[in-house]
Task: structure prediction
Amino acid sequence: MPASRHLHPRKTLRLLATFYGSYAPASLLLTAACVVLFRQHGISIFGTLFWLKLATLGVLYHFTNQRKAKQYFYYRNLGLSKGLLWGATLTFDFLLFLTAIILSYRLS
Result:
C-alpha cells in the first residue's frame, strides 16, 4: 500500500498545494496569456494554444524538476511520491487551463 494513503487528505492536499506553488507562477502566467489570445482570436486558435500549453507543461516540468531535485526527499518522507506530486500538479494545471478557456468561450 502506498505511503500517501496513510496521510490525512487535508495534509496531502496542503502538501500538493505547496508543491504546486513553486510551479504555479509561470504556468498561471501562460494560462492567462492563452486566455487573452483565445479571446482575441476565437476558437480558431484553440489547437495552437492547446499544444503550446502541453509543450510548456513539459518545459516547466523539466526546469522545476531540476530545481527541486533535493526537495523530493521532503515530500517522500511525508509519504508523497514524485509521481504523485507531478501527476496531481500537471493534471490540476491542465484542467485549470481548460476551465479558463471554456469559461472564456462561454463569456464571449
